[in-house]
Design a protein that fits this description.
Blueprint: E1 8-12, H1 17-28, E2 32-37, H2 40-52, E3 57-61, H3 69-81, E4 86-89, H4 104-132, E5 135-139, H5 152-171, E6 178-184, H6 216-228, E7 233-236, H7 238-249, H8 251-259
Parallel strand pairs: 1-2, 1-4, 2-3, 4-5, 5-6, 6-7
Helix pairs in contact: 1-6, 3-4, 4-5, 7-8
Bound molecules: NADP nicotinamide-adenine-dinucleotide phosphate.
NADP nicotinamide-adenine-dinucleotide phosphate (NAP) is lined by residues 12-19, 37-39, 63-65, 90-93, 113, 117, 139, 141, 184, 186-187, 189-191, 194.
């Protein structure tokens, strides 16, 4: 018996990294999946693999920045499975660079995916989730607690998402829909290879030391646990929990470390 037996889970950004690992983990725990992202070839390969292993899965090409795409994905999930129990609004990327060098367009591009993309996913799926008293989970970040130099655009988007989750969770209490914020630390994925325009660039250098990175599969196990428990917030990765804890108890210490840390000056 899996924790998600008979449940239907929709994941945005399921074509790589955390979303792909979460899809595998949900499938391993019994769920059926609706996989959404722009790279249809990757989604179709993953859907075929999960279906072959016994978890019926469908791939729906969609862009969270485009009006109507998420409604189409939810409709497809409903037609195929007849229900929707969990939505994991995970699609996102990072616009890096010092604030004085970033343009308004850079910030708007960041917010369009990381904030408005979550809102589109929320509005498209809420009525279905009310039917099953399901879970709307959002992938935030430890950067939604700590604003790091060189990442103001990304941190702003993740602070905003944390605010959304806190309020929406209370608003929806009577409907039976739980809102779960997932706040990961550093997790192995392709995010370091995506440039500030949102394009995959295999030559882009990562500034995160590999030793701190947590495998996506390990993070995915923590994510499904937090969603199953309908937690208010699941801070994912050990180092992530330490950072958030220190930031709460001694924010001056975090500021001191960040003051002398490297700033990606792209
Ligand atoms: N990795 C970390 O250390 C870390 C830490 C904290 C939070 N996070 C958050 O985790 C989430 C997933 O990121 P990741 O680290 O797994 O990076 P990733 O490997 O680059 O995955 C990002 C996913 O988002 C999808 N995506 C991006 N823009 C999209 C759009 N407009 N419409 C639909 N899908 C879109 C991508 O698919 P397509 O390109 O195929 O559309 C891809 O599947 C993000 O929200 C990120 O902020 C990551």
């Amino acid at each position: 018996m899996g924790r998600f037996d008979g449940k239907v889970v929709l994941i945005t950004g399921a074509s790589s990294g955390i979303g792909e690992a979460a899809a595998r983990q949900f499938a391993a725990e019994g769920a059926q999946l609706c996989l959404v992202a722009r790279r249809a070839d990757r989604l179709e390969a993953l859907a075929a693999e999960l279906t072959a292993k016994g978890s019926k899965s469908i791939a729906v090409a969609g862009d969270v920045t485009r009006d109507g795409d998420m409604e189409a994905a939810v409709r497809k999930a409903q037609e195929t499975f007849g229900r929707l129990d969990v939505v994991f609004a995970n699609a996102g990327f990072s616009v890096n660079g010092k604030a004085e060098r970033l343009t308004l367009a850079d910030y708007q591009r960041q917010f369009e995916t990381n904030i408005n993309g979550v809102l589109r996913t929320f509005h498209a799926s809420l009525e279905e989730l009310k039917q099953t008293r399901g879970v709307f989970a959002v992938n935030g970040s430890v950067s939604g607690h700590i604003s790091v130099p060189g990442f103001t655009a990304y941190s702003m988007s993740k602070f905003a998402i944390r605010a959304f989750c806190e309020g929406a969770r209370l608003e929806l209490q009577k409907t039976g829909v739980a809102v779960v914020l997932i706040s990961p630390g550093f997790v192995e994925s392709e995010i370091q290879k995506v440039d500030r325009m949102g394009r995959y660039n295999p030559n882009q250098k990562s500034f995160i030391p590999p030793w701190i990175m947590v495998p996506a599969g390990k993070a995915a196990k923590e994510i499904t646990r937090a969603i199953h428990c309908r937690k208010r917030e699941g801070v994912i990765t050990g180092h992530g929990r330490v950072f958030v804890c220190i930031n709460t108890l001694a924010p001056w210490l975090v500021r001191l470390v960040l003051k002398y840390g490297p700033v990606p000056g792209k």
